[in-house]
Amino acid sequence: MTIANRLYAGFAFIILLLIATTIIGTWQVDEINKTLTRVNEVGSEKQRYAINFRGSVHDRAIALRDLVLTESPAERDEFRALVAELKKNYADAERGMAQITSNPDLVTSKEKQLLERIEDIQQQALATSVEVEQLLASDQRQRAQDYVLRELSPAYAEWLNRINDFIDYEEKNIAAGVDDVLERSNGFTMVMWLVTVLAIGAGAVVSYLIVRRLTHTIGGEPEDAVTMLERIADGDLTVETNSKYQDSMMAQVNRMVRQLQRLVKEVSDSSEQLLNSSNELSETAGNNSQLVIRQQDETTQGAAAINQMSQTVSEVARHTNEAAELADETDRETQSGGEEVESTIRSIESLAHEVENAATVIGHLSDNTEEITKVLEVIEGIADQTNLLALNAAIEAARAGEHGRGFSVVADEVRALANRTQESTKSIQSLIETMKGSAGEAVSVMERGKTQASTSVEQARRAGHSLQTVNDAVKRMTDMNAQIATAAEEQSSVADEINQNFHGITEATEQSAAGSEQVSEASRELNDLAKHLSERVRRFRV
């Protein structure tokens, strides 16, 4: 058990004794107070009222006797007034007694019985008083005197006896209460002495155990321990005590002193090493500060170069976007040219088809001119025969003379018609020959146009394929431009990020420079601290 627990237990036991003493004393004092209250305030009051009863009854008995014996009317009036006053005094005491006995806690059954007996005899005695008054009123003094001796005196004597019984009972109660108070007081005195003895014994035992425990814990006198600790506080680590308690505080202080001696030696050696290390750290911090300054300059130059590269990449990205826009426009124009070439191919193919149809028609026309030539030859033969027949008819008309003149005229007309027919036929034949030559020439031209149209169609198709190739190349170039633009934007973003990183490196370099300065300052402070520590350690004597 610890010293604190021992102290708590000892003082708790003493406090419990004091509490028990207080509780018992309070209870005893309360009981004594109740008893004294019952004796002084209740018992004495009831006894005083009973004494008033007795005085009133006794004096009334004497007054009634004197009232009967006196012959003077004036004295009778005085005795009657005295009887009335005594009667009133009895009534006052009776009201006080009734007020007390109305509380069940303040009256006993015996007291109730005695008061009932007093009340019974009181009624009888008062009846005799009334009878005496009536006899006196009827001027029967002798009978009144006889009645007093025979009835009133015994009644009042019994009344007084019963009142005295009540008074005696109250005196016994008061005496018993006083005896109870004395007994309780004596018992309380014994309890107080007992508790005092127990408290003194418990205090002595607790004090002995605590002193023994403290001596064992400290290992000696507290003054010796204080002196030893003061010397240690002053830096004297050569102090040593001899304690027979190996687990005591002073034995542990000896152990602590030995540990402190080793610790101070180690701290002294470490402070020297710390001083040397702080000097080296200060020199290294100075060199590091110069390196950080040079790194800061180079980082600033790199940040400027990265910033310029970022602007160049942004310019390249802008030109690439313009090239992509031009490639998109070229793609649109190439697609439009391809559509025009397709339209041209379709037009040339349509023209070649028309030329082919025209050549066919012209071929048919040449064939028809051959047929017409044959018909013209037949017509020319007919015209020759008609001319011959007209010549024969003219000959025959000339032979006929006058009779053949009309026929001769017809023959001339027929011959003239035949000549014109021959001339027309020749003209038509000449035209047909010219048409045949023109048709043949047109056919040749149509054949050459057809060939040229086929060649144009093939060239247009090759041009369409070339435009398609150009369109594909433009699309690939557009894709490449988009990729280049994306790459340029990514490169620009990366360049910006690198630029930010360079700024971060610059800030970090600045912070590093500040840190180097702080390290230098800390190394100087560490040097001062090492010197101060070395000086403080030297104050210990080991």
UniProtKB/TrEMBL annotation:
Ranges of residues in domain T-SNARE coiled-coil homology: 466-519
Stretches of the chain forming a coiled coil according to its record: 76-103
Subcellular location, principal: membrane
Keywords: Cell inner membrane, Cell membrane, Coiled coil, Membrane, Transducer, Transmembrane, Transmembrane helix
A cellular-component GO term for this protein: plasma membrane
SMART domains, per database record: MA
Membrane topology note: Multi-pass membrane protein
Top-level taxonomic group: Bacteria
InterPro entries on file: HlyB_4HB_MCP, MCPsignal_dom, T_SNARE_dom, YvaQ-like_sensor
Family that this chain belongs to: Belongs to the methyl-accepting chemotaxis (MCP) protein family.
Name of this protein: Methyl-accepting chemotaxis protein
